[in-house]
Amino acid sequence: MNEFALDATLASVSHKIGILRVCEVRLLDDTRWPWLMLVPMRPAMVDLHDLTAADLADAMEDVRDCAHCLQVLVSCDKINVGSLGNIVRQLHIHVIARKEDDANWPGPVWGFGKAELYQDDARADFMAKISKELF
Amino acid sequence: MNEFALDATLASVSHKIGILRVCEVRLLDDTRWPWLMLVPMRPAMVDLHDLTAADLADAMEDVRDCAHCLQVLVSCDKINVGSLGNIVRQLHIHVIARKEDDANWPGPVWGFGKAELYQDDARADFMAKISKELF
């Protein structure tokens, strides 16, 4: 009953790469942006401040690792980090690599246009690179 | 030379309320959303992961305090937290109270429409309430 279970909508738009300190790390299935989603594996979390101080600090170290990973793997001008949850309430944190010529620069990625899905082999290749860098 | 100085654009759109563990807390001058901006008082910071682990953990406890403060003071359905920096690169963290009938729900606040400025007395009153709650 009181165990962590990934929200079905979050699951449907992303693919699991692995687990860091407290977060499950997933790749958003959208080629427009290199985009990781971190889901703290604690039950009944909605806002960042629902986490204990220790879990919040760990989650932010997970964010740090994911941001570094994207900076190593892709060319980017800025990392965007956000936890909104207006549509899906289960706590999740976005870590996104932005470029000054990307689809909605300098605006946010959320709510912009429609996801452009990866080809299976391209997604598998990118996930393998992320996994090698992170774990 | 190597001291923290608030970016002029960030200063121009917001008003200082006070200082928490590591962040200067400012009210965004936009009545559309109860919106706090936290600026970690460290020089040359751009991304969240430029902060040391200790400073990042402290900054997130500052975020926690600001989120709680907004939840106490205003009616809201969700807290949004984001660090984008696509326009102003100095590291800053947004903490925003959202309502399901607000101006751009469930989309993000960034880049949406134009700020609607507070009347001086309404802004002063809100800042006083925030200050009393936070400090």
Describe the fold and architecture:
The structure is a homodimer of 135-residue chains. With 135 residues, chain A is an alpha+beta fold. The first copy, chain A, is 30% helix and 22% strand. Chain A contains 3 helices and 5 strands. Chain A has helices at 8-12, 53-73, 120-134; strands spanning 14-19, 23-28, 35-40, 78-83, 93-98. A 5-stranded antiparallel β-sheet of chain A has the order 1-2-3-5-4. The model of chain A has no long low-confidence stretch (mean pLDDT 97). At the A-B interface, helix 2 and strand 4 of A face helix 2 and strand 4 of B. Strand 4 of chain A pairs antiparallel with strand 4 of chain B.
**Major sheet description of chain A:** 5 strands, antiparallel
Strand order of the largest sheet of chain A: 1-2-3-5-4
Q: Distance between termini of chain A?
A: 30 Å
Low-confidence stretches of chain A: none
Provide the gyration radius of chain A in Å: 14 Å
Give the rounded overall mean pLDDT of chain A: 97
Greatest interface and its residue counts?
A-B, 31 and 31 residues
The helix content of chain A is 25-40%
Oligomeric state of shown chains: homodimer
How many β-strands of chain A, per DSSP? 5
How much strand content do the residues of chain A show?
Answer: 15-25%
Structural class of chain A: alpha+beta
Order of helices and strands of chain A: HEEEHEEH
Count of runs of 4 or more consecutive helical residues of chain A:
3
Shape of chain A: globular
Strand and helix layout:
The structure is a homodimer of 135-residue chains.
Chain A lengths: L7 H5 L1 E6 L3 E6 L6 E6 L12 H21 L4 E6 L9 E6 L21 H15 L1
Antiparallel strand pairs in A: 1-2, 2-3, 3-5, 4-5
Helix pairs in contact in A: 2-3
